[in-house]
Amino acid sequence: MKKIKMIRILLVFAVFLLASSFYYLPYYISKPGMAKELEPIIEVEDGYEEEGKFMLTTVRMGRANIYSYLSAKLIDYREIYPIEYVRGENETDEEYNIRQLHLMNSSKIAAIEVAYKKAGIPVDFKYNGVYVLHVVPDMPAEGKLEAADRIFQIDGKEFHSSEEFIKYVSSLKAGEQIKLTYERNNEINHVNIQAEAFKDDENKERIGIGIGLVDDKELIVKPNVKVKTDEIGGPSAGFMFSLEIYNQLTESDLTKGYEIAGTGTISPDGTVGKIGGIEQKVIAADNAGADIFLAPNENGAKDSNYQAAVRTAEDIGTEMKIIPVDTFDDAITYLENLQPKK
What we know:
Helices cover 32% and strands 30% of the residues. The chain is α+β, with helices and mostly antiparallel strands and 342 residues long. It has a six-stranded mixed β-sheet, sandwiched between helices. The chain has a five-stranded antiparallel β-sheet with strand order 8-7-6-5-11, with helices on both faces. Helix 4 (93-118) packs parallel to helix 6 (238-249) and helix 7 crosses helix 8. The longest helix is centred in the N-terminal third of the chain and has 26 residues, at 93-118. Its EC number is 3.4.21.53.
């Protein structure tokens, strides 16, 4: 009898543990992710081989349950973020994921542009329309458009930038209707939407349909380049993408036998920008055996990614070199002057 009672108690306890693991708190938890070699991910047509490696670094980010929250309080280099710090106002989980994938795609385009221009190869763009990032609740687009829809016509006419789209919609009067042509899941659809004034105080003078959007464009280059990122989101791999692409475009191998990790956004002008989770990315690179870590310097700011990376490297006792970079050209100059690994 006592044994049966004990089994019941254990079962109840197990059910409680399982159920509580699915109860999410209003926080996100981040921790060190991985350092992943870029050569298998990026393929420039007839590109050059390299002796070493360029690696992107990641953090693992997820919604907090009771256990992950408590572990983050106890374990070094696990960070807790309020949900509003990670997601935009009224942004759903699906919209957040779509935004992260779009940021990754934008970073790929910028990386290709920077690398090809540095290599002296011309680039061209093809404009495809606007890409819906999110839909504002209680506005006309709600229930008609979804995140990831690609709008390419208004009232049967094509437009050539997001600025043109916004200008057209903003010129409407409240109550006027427009016909949008859009693509969803490889199918072409049409929808009529009535313009309205925004309901929030900040935008109440503006007319719109209630979507957040960005340009949807693709880069046209020769030789062709493929960047396979699967489900990796966010813009922080852009800088390392640009180095790998450039290295495959040029005969001289910048890796010189080293395993080189790093992080940072990349702008079309070659500026390397600040990212989140730099401490965790340093740990990911060290765990993968990287020799060098390239970190955004932010023009020498006291609280820069570079300074945080140096502190983390000292704390974990790594022999990995932390190198500050402000621009793509900074990184190229450093790597060109690097002595080959013995």
